[in-house]
Design goal:
Elements: E1 3-11, H1 15-21, E2 36-39, H2 50-64, E3 80-84, E4 92-99
Antiparallel strand pairs: 1-2, 1-4, 3-4
């Protein structure tokens, strides 16, 4: 099984949507751009947000098994994927890369 590097590339913050729809929360997303994790054997890395993991898990597991070329050539590197978490107020884009 391959390891998979997970890199937070970009984090958006939609304050207008938060003001309109979000209940106030004490702890928002703590992911920072440039932050990295490594998934060993397709497992969730320590410290990675549970919600983000659920958004990317199937892709990480597939890359760990040596699969790739998602959606028939979607990514330039067939052993990678660009996945966003499902937080509509603060979405984070993650680059997933198989590491041999």
């Amino acid at each position: 099984m391959n390891d998979v590097r997970i890199t937070a590339l970009r984090k958006a913050n939609y304050v207008d949507l938060q003001m309109l729809y979000e209940n106030p929360i004490e702890h928002a997303c703590s992911v920072e751009e440039g932050q990295e994790w490594v998934s060993c054997g397709g497992q969730k890395p320590e410290g990675l947000c549970d919600s983000a993991w659920e958004s990317m898990r199937v892709f990480v597991e597939a890359l760990a098994r040596g699969e790739g070329n998602f959606y028939n050539g979607w990514m330039r590197d067939p052993h990678s994927a660009l996945i966003s978490c499902n937080d509509g107020f603060r979405p984070v884009s993650f680059l997933l890369q198989a590491v041999e």
